[in-house]
């Protein structure tokens, strides 16, 4: 039997290599390969595995004359021209099940951090400031939490929130019938009306691009806390900053950003980034919500299983 060749272009847990190799695949790992180098190598491979660094455009797809599958270790598929790949008969896979627990834990951690002033209290105490009353927290219990998107991650957030004594309101444009005793299936208007905190778990695409803008934010009946561990470009950052200044948004936590190219942010001195880092009611993390030690292995294991089951 001919052994299929697979090109792995990112830093992916070695269990992927091990599991595929055990099934007879010939895997080559090039974690720092450039786009031009991929173009030269890809004609000889039946499979391509990427993580976050490689963008699979039409040039790579056209060069991959033997490609049978493109696999993304993780969730977001916006870095692959999926429609074009599928038009060429190439199967596109991902493994969002692998990091959903990690993302859900961080989203809830961010909620708790903002409600109980963890970042501010920690920073003040390191500066020898003992401010108890100013950092009096707000309990999550009894609050209404809006979850937008009920896929792998959104549903996991809901599951983990059940022990907090909160009202869980979930909106998903493309899913129905998921409501249960402890999860209310609602439309956006009910989230606008009732939510105290809102967390987003939707992909970035043409439909969701800058979905969270001034109009969206101002549709809420009361000030709220915003959490975004999904994709940066679903949220218009200037409108978020304005809402924070107007106190329409009480506080925000962002793990993802419109522009995640650190060099460009620094060279262009983007005003929104400078504004955000000065705000005490904002938590910022460098796209690490799904970046746990456990999720790195789990993402690779699930992806290997999918490649073996779907491709074969």
Report on this model:
The chain has 312 residues and is of the alpha/beta class. The protein is 38% helix and 16% strand. It has 13 helices and twelve strands. The relative contact order is 0.14. The chain has two domains: 5-98 and 294-311, Rossmann fold (3-Layer(aba) Sandwich), CATH 3.40.50.720; 100-284, 3-Layer(aba) Sandwich (Rossmann fold). Helix 1 (14-22) runs parallel beside helix 13 (293-311) and helix 5 (100-115) crosses helix 7 (152-161). The radius of gyration is 21 Å and the shape is elongated. Strand 3, helix 3 (58-63) and strand 4 (69-72) form a beta-alpha-beta unit. The chain has a seven-stranded parallel beta sheet, with helices on both faces.
Blueprint (SSEs and pairs):
Layout: E1 5-8, H1 14-22, E2 26-29, H2 35-41, E3 47-50, H3 58-63, E4 69-72, H4 82-87, E5 91-94, H5 100-115, H6 118-126, E6 144-148, H7 152-161, E7 167-171, E8 184-185, H8 188-194, E9 197-200, H9 214-218, E10 224-228, H10 237-246, E11 249-254, H11 262-268, H12 271-277, E12 282-284, H13 293-311
Parallel strand pairs: 1-2, 1-3, 3-4, 4-5, 6-7, 6-9, 7-8, 9-10, 10-11, 11-12
Helix pairs in contact: 1-13, 5-7
């Amino acid at each position: 039997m001919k052994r299929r060749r697979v090109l792995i272009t990112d830093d992916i847990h070695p269990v992927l290599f091990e599991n595929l190799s055990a099934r007879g695949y010939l895997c080559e790992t090039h974690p720092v390969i450039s786009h031009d180098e991929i173009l030269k190598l890809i004609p000889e491979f039946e499979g391509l595995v990427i993580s976050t660094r490689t963008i699979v455009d039409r040039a790579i797809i056209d060069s991959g004359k033997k490609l049978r599958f493109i696999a993304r270790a993780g969730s977001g598929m916006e870095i692959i021209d999926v429609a074009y790949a599928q038009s060429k008969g190439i199967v596109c896979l991902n493994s969002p099940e692998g990091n959903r627990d990690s993302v859900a834990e961080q989203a809830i951690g961010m909620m708790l951090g903002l409600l109980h002033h963890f970042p501010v209290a920690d920073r003040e105490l390191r500066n020898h400031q003992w401010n108890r009353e100013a950092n009096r927290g707000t309990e999550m219990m009894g609050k209404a939490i809006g979850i937008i998107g009920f896929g792998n991650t959104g549903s996991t957030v809901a599951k983990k929130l059940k022990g907090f004594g909160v009202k869980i309101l979930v909106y998903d444009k493309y899913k129905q019938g998921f409501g249960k005793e402890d999860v209310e299936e609602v439309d956006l208007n009910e989230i606008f009306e009732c939510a105290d905190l809102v967390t987003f778990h939707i992909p970035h695409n043409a439909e969701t691009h800058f979905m969270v803008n001034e109009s969206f934010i101002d549709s809420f009946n009361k000030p709220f806390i915003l959490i975004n561990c999904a994709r940066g470009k679903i949220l218009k950052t200037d409108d978020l900053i304005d809402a924070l200044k107007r106190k329409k948004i009480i506080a925000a936590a962002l793990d993802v950003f419109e522009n995640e190219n650190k060099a460009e942010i620094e060279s262009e001195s983007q005003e929104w980034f400078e504004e955000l880092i000065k705000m005490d009611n904002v938590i910022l993390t460098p796209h690490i919500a799904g970046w746990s030690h456990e999720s790195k292995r789990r993402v690779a294991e699930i992806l290997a299983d999918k490649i073996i089951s779907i491709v074969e």
